[in-house]
Amino acid sequence: MTATGNNYAEALFMLAREENLIDEFYEGLKMVEEVFAETPEYLQFLATPSIPKSERTATLAQAFEGKVNTHVLSFLCLMCEQGKTEQFFDSASEFYRLREWASGTVVAKVTSVVELTEQQKIDLIKALEKRTGKKVTLNCVTDDTLLGGIAVELDGQLLDGSVKSNLKRAKEVISV
């Protein structure tokens, strides 16, 4: 995450909060994110400095006017004008994180070798809620390269209890 991406996201979030439209801004960003993910050449077009800014921002207006909040559209145009469109995904992610923080909820990305049982999920949620003091929801994924254990990404921190990570740390200690 870049500092510039964070700054754009924080400014947009402050505006969303001031206007009491956090969820509306969120939905607009999600829509734009889908479009950019499905058509990466569109994002590349927006980042091309040889194309006049007015032409690039006009295509944004054409694509999203009436579909997203006007402030979200202005945000996109500003990023385009400032040559920062490549940081859109980072900014959107930071906005989502700020939304979670403001609601007192955090999403923990949990990576494990095998799918967690319902009881393991419940126990993990309780432990993470105790640690953070916030309501926690889990986004669970599996990755057989971990060998065992779990890795949890929460509030920008990685809590890595995977066997793969422990072996790597052991190797570093032995190599010293």
Keywords:
single chain; 176 residues; alpha+beta; Peroxidase, domain 1; Glutaredoxin; four-stranded mixed beta sheet
Structure commentary:
A 4-stranded mixed β-sheet has the order 2-1-3-4, sandwiched between helices. The chain contains 8 helices and 4 strands; from the N terminus they run ααααααβαβββα. It has 2 domains: 98 residues, Peroxidase, domain 1 (Orthogonal Bundle); 71 residues, Glutaredoxin (3-Layer(aba) Sandwich). It is α+β, with helices and mostly antiparallel strands. The protein is globular, with a radius of gyration of 20 Å.
State the strand order across the main sheet. 2-1-3-4
Poorly predicted runs of 5 or more residues: none
Shape: globular
The overall strand count is 4
Summarize the entry for a quick read.
The protein has 176 residues and is α+β, with helices and mostly antiparallel strands.
Set out the fold topology:
Elements: H1 3-19, H2 22-38, H3 40-46, H4 53-64, H5 70-81, H6 88-103, E1 105-112, H7 118-132, E2 135-142, E3 150-154, E4 157-160, H8 163-175
Parallel strand pairs: 1-2
Antiparallel strand pairs: 1-3, 3-4
